[in-house]
Amino acid sequence: MQSDHSLPDELISEILTRALKVSEETFCNTDPVSPFANFSESTSAYLLVCKSWLHVATPLLYNVVVVRSKAQAKALSIALSGNKQLGLFIRKLRVEGGFGSPMHVVLKCSPNISDLFLSFDIFSSDNTSGLCKGLPLINPTRLILWASSRKSLENKMLLQLLQSLSDAIAKWDNLRIFDCPFEFASHWRLAHKLVPPIVKAKRLDTLAIQSAHNIAWTYSQFKDCPLKAIHIKRPVSMAERNSLSEDPDLIVFSDFPTMGLLKFSDRPRGVWDVPAGRPELLLITPSLDSSFVPLKMAPSAVKDHIWTRVMHFAMLLAANHSSTPSSGEVATRLGLLLVSKLFYRLGRPLFHKHITFRRPAQINKFAHILAQSPVIGQYVRSININFGNTINFEFYDSDVVRNGSSSLTSILSQASALVRFGGHLATSNTPTIYWDAFAAMAKCSGRTLRECSLNVWPEEGVHSATIFDNLTALRILNWDSDNIYTDIESADVKGLSSLEELRSTTSSASFLDLLCHLQLKCIRRVEFSDADSSIKEFLVTHGSKLTELELAFPHLGRLKSTKIFDLCSNLYSITFFEYDDEDEDEDESKFLNPPSVQHLYSSQVVHPLTKITFKMYWYKEKKQVIAAWDPFFSQFKPECFPNLHDLEVTCCSWPTSEREIAKSCWVRWSEFLRPRGIALTDKMGMKWRPRLKVK
């Protein structure tokens, strides 16, 4: 006899409840964008796992029903008509539109609805006839209404819904809770229709309003109801709460009850919270033995090792983590060094491990410290220069500039174990330094420097390219400089032998010549932000080594007959971005035109490319812009890229309502590419999930 390994229904229900449950906060949400406007798999997929899950999950799924399109309304009406038992499960119904006659069937088959959510964002093309016929057939306990903050819509369908809802409210003897949307002047017409029948019934005991600023108006409308609580949904600071008791608009109501009637959010604004990522300090009970010394009997080596680890965490400098502490954190860390001689000896290397200069004077001060104690230079692992919005030396007085440059050169000539200077390849903070400082850093710490992000200030004359021979450990380089170089042929071809990632914002022709001269055997990722120079020779020399490439649209045109995917035969990701020339007249269409589709083909039978990204920034979906890109998506034929799965567009914005879906160019392009096995995604990697459609 075969044993039954299935779980009991009660246990399956406990498991599936967590997956299928719609929280109270989500169901009542009245934000401009619906919380149900997501693009993940539908929760109904749980019902398809097996018969046991279908049996248990069906009541859970139908407990809260959300209708957001005509197709969903029609499908739901068919399901409820075919199985009368399903409608009995529905307790909460959220309807975000009109959706026609199917809504009459839905309401007719759902007699147990206790919570009803309706949207007044009704357009003239919507059909509210089904809702109007079905509202008298239910008797909810709670009514939640949503109205957009923009000018109230005026059309036949909306007025029809208002009248039907007003008539139904008069008959709903269970209605006790009302979530009031009336917050702006544009809502007064709605209030004029709906408030009187609610007040006349004298059953309402709980009222929910959006914010505290309209309490007086709200109370004036509903004061004849037996109210027990007024919930304010948006957070209210403690100061605002205290001022409500003195509100002159409320004082005029002599019968206004105590402030106990008002119910505020659990977390009002203005409450001091513990900053994210920084837990509260634990209160440690002092030892009863005042003479106790931790690790007193431990060997010196063990004691030093343990206390060093403690100091790491105490100074917020965990292993392999480079921080940029604020002035307050620096003061806190400095205080730790003053605890004892042991803490000073062990904490000093940690204190100077990561250096951040926020003002030019700090550079001079640290150079003076190094002059007095050169051993500190061995402790420095990272240096970051961040002067806020004015990070370049040229913004300061000439004397400060020269002194700062000289001091920085002195520091970099003594930081012999430097690992990182500036930011990571993807950072936008690129400090500006002079050539002397860069040369000093290359000579002193070239064997340890792994990440470097900087802008080398252009100076008259030429510089020797052999300086790059010293950077043997450099893996990541963010380079912004148009200096001219000589002795390129004399440079060691093995220079920058460890370089894996290169980002060049501005570069001279001689720098590109130098890169072509070097072997760069480890290079894998390259980004060229400068669209004024030609990178063809670089791609001819090193293109086959690259796996990731990012470049501006104009570079494709300069390759002419040479196809970029023939030069870069091992790419699995490529990114194109629009290039804005500040010297030209601002012509939006000039920078938003797509590249030629012919440039995106390869003669390879099978190319490893898996992802194409377009970094573009459309503030609005203008018709001329869409018209320019329509042929690109319709003509794109990825036969040469059988591995291509994602086409990411950073300015892609997926629609969140049925009306927006019908007009969205992104949906149209996505549905064109999907049969070809390519997913169009936004900057978060979110792809469009096809919606149910009315046949």
Automatic annotation (TrEMBL):
- Which superkingdom heads the taxonomic lineage of this protein's source? Eukaryota
Which InterPro entries does this chain map to?
LRR_dom_sf
Protein name per its UniProtKB record: F-box domain-containing protein
Q: Which organism is it from?
A: Favolaschia claudopus
